């Protein structure tokens, strides 16, 4: 079965640079979620999109932005990178956006900021 | 305030059933109980979820008490590959996201 595809899997950036992560949801899934997991921490919700509109927002820094495109893939843009942005970034997708819909997660993108 | 409370860690013997408890004493009628697990640095993996009734699938069983204030995830025959952090999550019907709290680190030993 097709899964959630994230790219790149690994990314190394310098401080103050910009990074873009991409997420391709499972076919026919219309909702995308982004999570950040710092070293030794639990995944923290950043933002979600349903049918290309922002549906919920968590603790996403102002330096970060995201969008969902017409083909339902999503991109997370991170600017003015800081050392503390080094983390695993997970994307998840679901069909529909209610509490009854299961989220399927991708393998994650590991961002290292030097 | 955390919606769920789980033990910090548990050890289980390979081949035996693993019973993972979760307290959610403030759960409301429209909130589901979800279980996910995360094997070291991999993406969280869905296990099972339920609203009121007990549920079973190919991975596990979910037992929810009648008052819905606690639940138990049962892995029927634990294997070394079940070593992971297990998250019990309460999610409202109109809540788009999953909110991860502190899970239980389960170590399956041979």
Task: Describe the protein's architecture and organization.
The complex is a heterodimer of chains A (114) and B (110). Chain A has no helices and eleven strands. Chain A has strands at residues 5-7, 10-13, 19-24, 31-37, 44-50, 53-57, 64-68, 74-78, 87-94, 104-105, 109-113. In chain A, a hairpin with a 2-residue loop joins strand 5 (44-50) and strand 6 (53-57). The model of chain A has no long low-confidence stretch (mean pLDDT 96). Chain B is an all-beta fold and 110 residues long. Chain B has no helices and nine strands. Chain B has strands spanning 9-13, 18-23, 31-38, 45-50, 55-56, 61-64, 70-75, 84-92, 104-109. In chain B, strand 5 (55-56) and strand 6 (61-64) form a beta hairpin. Chain B is globular, with a radius of gyration of 13 Å. The model of chain B has no long low-confidence stretch (mean pLDDT 95). The A-B interface holds A 4, 31, 33, 35, 42-45, 48, 50, 55-56, 58, 88, 90, 92, 97-100, 102-108, 110 and B 30-32, 38, 41-46, 49, 87, 91-103.
């Amino acid at each position: 079965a097709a899964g959630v595809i994230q790219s790149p899997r690994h990314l190394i950036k310098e401080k103050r640079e910009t990074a873009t992560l991409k997420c391709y949801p499972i076919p026919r899934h219309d909702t995308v979620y982004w999570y950040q997991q710092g070293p030794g921490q639990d995944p923290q919700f950043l933002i979600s999109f349903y049918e290309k509109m922002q549906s919920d927002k968590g603790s996403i820094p102002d330096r970060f932005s995201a969008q969902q495109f017409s083909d339902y893939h999503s991109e997370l843009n991170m600017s003015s990178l800081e050392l503390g942005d080094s983390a695993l970034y997970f994307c998840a997708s679901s069909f529909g956006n209610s509490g009854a819909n299961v989220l399927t997660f991708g393998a994650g993108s590991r961002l290292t900021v030097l | 305030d955390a919606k769920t409370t789980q033990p910090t860690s548990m050890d289980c013997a390979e081949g035996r059933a693993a019973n993972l408890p979760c307290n959610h004493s403030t759960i409301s009628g429209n909130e589901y109980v979800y279980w996910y697990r995360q094997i070291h640095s991999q993406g969280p993996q869905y296990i099972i979820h339920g609203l009121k009734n007990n549920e079973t699938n190919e991975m596990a069983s979910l037992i929810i008490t009648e008052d819905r204030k606690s639940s138990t995830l049962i892995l029927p025959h634990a294997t070394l590959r079940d070593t992971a952090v297990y998250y019990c999550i309460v999610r409202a019907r109109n809540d788009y996201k999953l909110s991860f709290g502190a899970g239980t680190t389960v170590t399956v030993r041979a």
